[in-house]
Design goal:
It is a single chain. This protein is α+β, with helices and mostly antiparallel strands and 371 residues long. The chain folds into two domains: 10-83, NE0471 N-terminal domain-like, CATH 3.30.2020; 96-369, Double-stranded beta-helix (4-Layer Sandwich), CATH 3.60.130.10. Helix content is 24%, strand content 28%. It is built from nine helices and 20 strands. The chain has helices spanning 20-26, 77-83, 116-120, 128-138, 153-161, 226-236, 238-246, 295-309, 356-369, and strands at residues 2-8, 10-13, 16-19, 52-59, 62-68, 71-76, 113-115, 141-145, 173-175, 191-194, 206-213, 221-225, 249-255, 258-264, 267-269, 275-278, 316-318, 325-329, 333-337, 348-354. The chain has a six-stranded mixed β-sheet with strand order 7-8-18-11-20-9. A hairpin with a 2-residue loop joins strand 5 (62-68) and strand 6. Helix 6 packs across helix 8 (295-309). The protein is globular and about 80 Å long. The mean pLDDT is 95. It binds N-oxalylglycine (OGA), 3-carboxy-N,N,N-trimethylpropan-1-aminium (NM2) and zinc ion (ZN) (2 copies).
């Protein structure tokens, strides 16, 4: 089928509406886009705002478009359907809408689990790696089993899902009782549900904790889905929910060599009003810097959030054994641990951070190649 008129500003194919300027920008030819990376080879200034279409020819899945000024582009109709303006889903949507929020009862078998060899992609289950990356993305948690009980292995696990994010705590950090702790993590105290490093910008998107040895006496972990916590608050106390989405809280960490501060809402919304992130840590929150008449409501909302966090039905319990490594979305999942006292065995975890973009990329590459 060939359509030809003097000036076409918008191409219509069935229910698709494709503005000429948008089509010209999307041209995938080797003069417009670099073949290997898909990177655009010219600036937006090189796109003529007066671009129109002179002719469109459709043959099965192949759509040829001739532009004024002179250029021709060949598209796949399937690609146009998937990418047309207003039709494509947001690729990097990490909000509650694009995920699977859970409470403990939704995971009767506990945290989704993968063997270390399967996560690497050379184990017995050929679909293990993709399944694990999907679980980690959608549920926000993953337990990797049979990681060698060797210091530093946590970095190997991180490198199979992304890139290690070095911080003031190092490439990796040891979580165990220390004589001069620079963080409450390095004591035997209980730690309430929190996300790590809210005093940093950007906050590390992924956290890993690898168990090298466990204490016989306490030190159990709890995980909660912050998207579900926020949903409970939105339903039961909309005023507190609104306060926590609009109040900028400041978080702080200081030691001899370090002075970190960052601020943001405890519950972060995207432009559509969906929850996309949780920032919460009792240890590092500063007294709120808000107008005096708002102080009372902010504390009321903080208490309401903490009260939901304390609900047992949201708590997924797990006890890490040597060789277990939990991986979770640190912008969504809160983690906690009970107090412990080292006796016969001393509790020792090694942790590190990575970012969510690396995870999204690892998953997308697997989905693209089917391996
Ligand atoms: C932490 C932490 C968990 C644990 O160090 O931030 O949450 O199980 N540790 O010790
Ligand atoms: N550690 C374990 O964000 C935090 O301060 C939690 C982080 C010290 C790297 C602890
Ligand atoms: Zn082109
Ligand atoms: Zn922590």
């Amino acid at each position: 089928m060939t359509m030809s008129t003097d000036v076409i500003n918008t191409v219509r194919i069935d229910d698709l509406e494709l503005p000429a300027l948008w089509l010209r920008d999307a041209c995938p030819c080797a003069a417009c886009r670099h073949a290997g990376s898909g990177q655009r080879l010219h600036s937006v200034l090189a796109l003529d705002p007066g671009t129109t279409v002179a002719a469109v020819h459709i043959d099965g899945d192949v759509v040829d478009v001739t532009f004024v000024p002179d250029h021709t582009a060949r598209f796949s109709l399937a690609w146009l359907r998937a990418h047309a303006p207003g039709c494509a889903p947001v690729f990097d949507d990490r909000s509650e809408r694009a995920r699977r929020p859970w409470v403990a009862a939704d995971l009767p078998n506990g945290v989704p689990t993968v063997a270390w060899s399967d996560l690497r992609g050379d184990g017995r289950d050929p679909g293990g790696r993709l399944g694990a990356l999907r679980d980690l993305t959608d549920l926000g948690v993953l337990l990797v089993r049979d990681v060698p009980v060797v210091p530093g292995s946590v970095l190997d696990v991180a490198r199979t899902i992304g890139f290690v994010r070095t911080t003031n705590y190092g490439d990796l950090f040891d979580v165990r009782v220390e004589p001069q702790p620079i963080n409450l993590a390095y004591t035997g105290r209980a730690i309430a549900p929190h996300t790590d490093n809210p005093y940093r910008e950007p906050i590390p998107g992924v956290q890993l904790l690898h168990c090298l040895s466990s204490s016989a006496n306490g030190g159990e972990n709890v995980l909660l889905d912050g998207f579900s916590v926020a949903a409970v608050l939105r339903r039961e106390d909309p005023a507190a929910f609104a306060t926590l989405t609009t109040t900028r809280l400041t978080f702080r960490y200081d030691d001899d060599r370090t002075a970190l501060r960052a601020s943001g809402p405890a519950i972060e919304l995207n432009a559509d009003g969906d929850v996309r992130g949780i920032r919460w840590n009792d240890r590092s929150i500063e007294p709120p810097q808000v107008p005096v008449h708002e102080v009372g409501e902010v504390y009321r909302a903080l208490r309401a959030f903490a009260a939901v966090l304390a609900r047992p039905e949201l708590h997924l319990h797990l006890t890490l054994a040597p060789g277990d490594c939990i991986v979770f979305d640190n912008t969504r999942i809160l983690h906690a641990r009970t107090a412990f006292a080292d006796g016969a065995g001393a509790r020792h975890l090694q942790g590190c951070y990575a970012d969510l973009d690396g995870l999204a990329s690892a998953r997308a590459v697997l989905e693209r190649t089917g391996r």
